[in-house]
């Protein structure tokens, strides 16, 4: 389009997870290219602090509910005041507010929506219609699996497109692989199998622990590390005790700088039940750690069995354990997985490619 880009980003979570990291990569990438942008986010959110730290123009305000006319009115006011050309909604609530601004406050700007998980059909009017609103010109999906789910639920399937999430490869350079062992006092004689995941039902750390039990039975010199926190932590600690592997499992909690510890893993074991793409797996690729994973959602778009990693069915702790043991025992296979995974990452899953593909979409939409 002839008009210079001027993007309003809407990001509503208070917390910081994989989706917010992708927004951050996009903001910095657009800033580097001189593209005008502005962020509307929640007061007291991690995104507000990110914008402050990186000198990104923004407005932070309270969000009282997921259906709030005041927040939607703010969307329209910001668009008028700043002369925006596009609205980019980065989460479900942001999508709602963008559509409300279009429907009730006559905001005429095209809406681009980012969708990071598969679409669940709901009965509410808003849930049924916001994906089909005429102002929504593109739905950016993080994987083909997510795109296919969205296309099955919308009237114009061509609105959905795939832009893979990207990894910042520079975060994995010049890291000390011994930091994990020294931080948690894990001996050099131990093989470390770890994961990075929120401790929630969806991530299925229960299966991780059951696979750990099976691995430990065969290879007692194995130690297991879980980087992440969540509601299921107490239940999982209890399960580790019941499985009699508690002394061989480290619950590390939330970690600010994941790459610094991830590079210390010998094997990355990911047991999630449902993933839009699985950026934690991509982080493992970048850390040059071999991946054993379930084939949940979009993971199989990066993990090709016996090529870039090892795949098992969801919940199959026995096969996951066997795949881990194979990777530990077969040095040649392990090295091939690491090399192939890193090549796949460089070709398809970098933050630079994600930014470039998103800019292409902005320029296609008017």
Folded structure, characterized:
The protein has 366 residues and is α/β, with parallel strands linked by helices. It has 2 domains: 6-166 and 350-364, Rossmann fold (3-Layer(aba) Sandwich), CATH 3.40.50; 169-348, 3-Layer(aba) Sandwich (Rossmann fold), CATH 3.40.50. It is 41% helix and 17% strand. It has 14 helices and 13 strands. It has helices at residues 18-32, 46-53, 69-82, 92-104, 125-129, 144-151, 179-184, 205-218, 233-242, 258-262, 279-286, 317-329, 331-348, 351-364; strands at 6-11, 36-42, 58-61, 86-89, 111-115, 136-141, 160-162, 191-196, 222-227, 249-253, 267-270, 291-294, 310-312. The strands form 2 sheets. Strands 3-2-1-4-5-6-7 form a 7-stranded parallel β-sheet, sandwiched between helices. Strands 10-9-8-11-12-13 form a 6-stranded parallel β-sheet, sandwiched between helices. β5 (111-115), α5 and β6 form a beta-alpha-beta unit. α3 (69-82) packs across α4 (92-104) and α8 (205-218) packs across α12 (317-329). The longest helix has 18 residues, at 331-348. The chain starts with 5 loop residues before the first strand and ends with a helix. The relative contact order is 0.12. The mean pLDDT is 95.
